[in-house]
Prior knowledge:
Layout: E1 15-17, E2 23-27, E3 34-35, E4 49-51, E5 56-57, H1 63-66, E6 73-75, E7 82-84, E8 100-102, E9 107-109, E10 125-127, E11 149-151, E12 158-159, E13 173-175, E14 180-183, E15 197-199, E16 204-208, H2 211-214, E17 222-224, E18 229-232, E19 246-248, E20 253-256, E21 270-272, E22 277-281, E23 295-297, E24 302-305, E25 319-321, E26 326-327, E27 329-330, E28 342-344, E29 350-351, H3 353-360, E30 368-370, E31 394-396, E32 403-404, E33 418-420, E34 425-429, E35 442-444, E36 449-453, H4 462-465, E37 476-483, E38 485-492, E39 499-501, E40 506-509, E41 523-525, E42 530-534, E43 547-549, E44 554-557, E45 571-573, E46 578-582, E47 602-604, E48 610-612, E49 619-621, H5 625-657
Parallel strand pairs: 2-4, 3-5, 4-6, 6-8, 7-9, 8-10, 10-11, 11-13, 12-14, 13-15, 14-16, 15-17, 16-18, 17-19, 18-20, 19-21, 20-22, 21-23, 22-24, 23-25, 24-26, 25-28, 27-29, 28-30, 30-31, 31-33, 32-34, 33-35, 34-36, 35-39, 36-40, 39-41, 40-42, 41-43, 42-44, 43-45, 44-46, 46-47
Antiparallel strand pairs: 1-2, 37-38, 48-49
Family: Belongs to the RLP family.
InterPro entries: Leu-rich_rpt, Leu-rich_rpt_typical-subtyp, LRR_dom_sf, Plant_RL_S/T_kinase
Membrane topology: Single-pass membrane protein
Amino acid sequence: MSWRNVTDCCEWEGITCNRSGGVTEVSLASKGLEGRISPHLAGLTGLLRVNLSHNSFSGGLPPELMYSRSIVVLDVSFSRLSGVLHEPPSSVTTTLTLQVLNISSNQFGAEFPSYTWKLMRNLVVLNASNNSFTGHIPPSLCLSSSLAMLDLCYNQLSGGIPAALGDCSTLEVFKVGHNNLSGTLPAELFHATSLEHLSFPNNGLQGELDGANIVKLSNLVTLDLRENKFSGKIPGSIGQLKRLEELYLGNNNMSGELPSTLSNCTRLMVIDLKINNFSGDLGRVNFSTLQNLTHLDILRNNFSGIVPESIYSCSNLIALRVSLNHFHGEISPRIGNLHLSFLSLARNPFTNITKAFHVFNSFRNITTLIIAENFVNEMMPQDETLDGFRNLQYIHMADSALTGHLPVWLSKLRNLKVLKLSNNRLTGPMPGWINSLHSLFYLDVSNNSFTGQIPITLMEIPMLKDNTAAYLDPGQVELPLFWRNISRQYHFLTAFPTLLNLSINNFTGVIPPEIGQLKVLSELDFSSNKLYGVIPLSVCNLTKLEVLDLSNNHLRGVIPAALERLHFLSAFNISNNDLEGPVPAGGQLSTFPDSSFDGNPKLCGTMLVHRCSSTGADVVYVISAKQLSVKVIFFVGFGLFFGVGVLYDQLVLYRYFG
C-alpha cells in the first residue's frame, strides 16, 4: 500500500474522515506493517477507531493511544507488540472513552496493570489473552458498569479470582483459562448473573461445585472448568441450567454418580467428563432427552454396567468416547444408527468382535475408531464383505491378543493414515496389498508373530515417501487423541510422527535396500526379528529419522559411515547383532551410550570399551594392568601345563612302543 501519491489523507487507504475532514478511523489490519506505532496517532483529536491488528510491529503500545481522550475502539491484536502495558500518566485523571481494547496475541509481559482500569469506566470489551502478563486479576475491572467481555486466557496470572468480579452485573463472557490461578471459586462470583460463558480451564482451582450458587447463573451457556483440581460431585441443581450447551469438567478429581437431572439440560451439545473418578451406572442419565448432543467424552472414569441404550437415541451424536471404564457385554446394534465420526471403546471388556464389526460396517462417516484392549483373545474379523467404513483415517486395535491374519478388508481403507495393531497375536506374512493404503504414514504392528520377509510393497506406500499431500487434509479429529502418555494431546493426525514399527516379530531375510525411498520417516523400528545381511547404505537417505532401532537381529558387516548424516537422531540402537568395524565418530552417533552398541563384540569405537587401531581395521582391547597380569599368568600356566602334558605323552608312547 502507498499513501505517497495522494495529498488528501482522507483519500488514503484505510483512512475514514468525517464531513469536516477530520480523521475518525484508521483501519490497517493485515497490511504487513512493520516498525513502531507512532504515538502521534493520538494527536488526531477526532479519532474514534484504530485497527492495526495482524501486522508485524516492533516495540510497545504507545500509552498516548491507550489513554486517548477520543478513541473508542483500539485493536492491536496479533501484531508482535512487546514490552510493558504502561499505567496512565499522572496527567490523565478523567474517565476515558475507550470501550473496546483488544491487545491479544502479542508479547506483552510484566505485571498486568491495575490502576488503569479505574479510568476505563466505559469499557465493554477487554481482550488481553495470549500474552505473558504476570500478577493478579485486578478487582478494579468491574468499575466499568458496561463490561460484557473479559478474556485473560493464556497468560501467567496467579492468585485467586477476585470476589469483586461478582459486581460485574453486565459481564457475559469471562475467560481466564491457561494461567496459574489457585484457590476456590468465590461465592460472590455467582452474583454476576448475566454470565453466559464461564471458562477457567487449565489452572490450579479447587473445591467443590456449590449447587446453591451455580443455579444463580441461569443464563449460562458454557461452563468450562476442565484441567483443574475440582473435587466432589456434580450438583443435582445443574439440571436447572436450561440454557447450558457445553459442559467441560474433564481432568479434575470429581467423583460420585452423575445426577439424573443432567437429562433436563436439553440444550447440551458437549459433555466432557474425562479423566475423573465418576462411577456408577451411566444409565441414570436419560440421554434420549439430549437430542442436541454432539460430543460425549467420559474417558478414564469408573462407570460400570452396560453402555445405556438411550445414548443411541442421540441422533446428532458424532463423537463418543467411553474408553477406560468398566463397561462390558457386546456392542449394541443400535450404535449403527448414529452418524459417528469418532468412536472410542478402548479398555473395556467388550466381547464378540465379529458382531461389533458388522455393526460398525454401517458407519459411513467414521474417521476414528479406537477399540484397543477389548475382545481379548478373539480372532481378527476376516469377512471380506466388510467395506462400510471407507472414510476411516485412524484405527487403533492394539493390546488385545487378537489372532488371525491381516484381513483383506483393511486394503479397502484408502484414506487410512494411522494403523495401530501392536501387542496382538497376529500371524502370517505382511500382505503385498499393504501399498494400497495410499494415505498411510503410521504403521505399528510390533509384538505380533508375523513371519516371512519384509515386503518390497511396504516401501511403496506413497505417504512414507512424500507426505506433502497430507497437509492438504490434516485429519482433524473430533476429540483429542492421546499418544504414549495422557498429557500429550493431538487434534490433528498429521501431528503424529511418520512411523514404521515391525519390531518383536519373526520377520526374516534382509532389510530391503528400497527402505531408502521412505524419506519422510521419523521413526523406524525393525528390532527383535530374525533379519540378517548388512545395514543397507540407503538407510542413510532417511535424513528425517529421529528413532532408528535395528537391535536384536542377525545383522552383520560394518555400520555405514553415512549414518552420520542423520542429524535428528535422538534414539539409536543396533545392539545384539554381529556388526563389526569402527562406529562412525561423527554426527549424532557419538552421543549415544555404549548400550546402543552392546552385543556386537567386533565393533570398536571411542565410545566403546573396544577401541580401534590407528588403521581403523583392527580392534585394540583396552584393559587394566591387573587384567593384563591375570591374563599373562593364565597363558604362562596354560603353556607349562600343555608342555608337561606333551612330555608325559612321549614317555608313555616310548614305554609301550619303544
